[in-house]
Amino acid sequence: MNIVSRITNLQLKHPFKIARRATDAYRQVISVEIDGGIGETAPARFYSETVETVSVALETIAPTLPNNLDAIHDVMATVETLIGGNYAAKSAIDMALHDRLGKKIGVPLYQLWGLNPQKTPCTSFTIGLDEPEVMAEKVRNAEAYPILKIKLGTPRDIEIIATLRGVTDKPIYVDANTAWTPKEAVRKIRELAEHGVELIEQPTKPNDLAGLKFVRDNSELPIIADESVKRASDIPALAECVDGINIKLVKCGGLLEAHRIIHVARAHGLLVMIGCMIESSLGITAAAHLTPLVDYADLDGNLLITNDPYTGVTLNNGKLILPEHPGIGVM
Ligand code: MG
Which of 167, 289, 312, 326 could bond to 330 as cystine, CB 3.0-4.6 Å? Predict the structure, then answer.
């Protein structure tokens, strides 16, 4: 089966900075087409994937795809036996197969899965790291978005939140992107709670589960794991260490695995967030179809770029509105 792939440079509205890295002018994504279905992936170096590794993986996988692409579970199981890791590449394939099947049957993805499109949450809107005053200006410009996710992980974290609280009383999520030590996290979270922060994402190192558990046991805010969790099989070991998990399609390998993660997380009593990378409306809309199943959505990657090749999911006062066209439903 042929996989047609294309690399696109998504231009950023602003340079985007988190605790461990900065992205300047653009971010590369790969879109794929398989028998009329389309998908996209935004590989991350943090997970050892690049557009080059994705291209090589796609070339390896393409000749092995069966003629019957309808049985997506079987196709993805075959791909999994063929090549380990490479979840960003697998995510693009999985997404294209879902789009293809939805188009073939003539229903949007949420309907294919029996989900209620009214039950989508509001997405948060991310403010990258910068000088406190610059971040405050970005918050003022984010008037359209009712929930903010603030990137932290600097010596000035509390100063930043205090400055932002001077310009907004909106709900705030904080993402430290692994930057804090466990003790530092407990101390900072206590102060952040006083500033009305609602949850904390990935305070400490990804593999330090004891550190995460220490933070969770000594903090009043929900602790959500992001970098610590990629696949459903990561969840049992994490379940006593955090309150919730953040799913990303490019981390886990696509929509099938995302469903598995949601169900395994729920079985362990965890909260579920679905997040994203900097992606076009193709990747963001595919993830948005899952949001009737989650507690928190952080699907704003398409809002941070200037040259989105697609239109798909839209927002109404921050609430995700799913397109009704078949498949992912982007135009
Ligand atoms: Mg995160």
Answer: 312
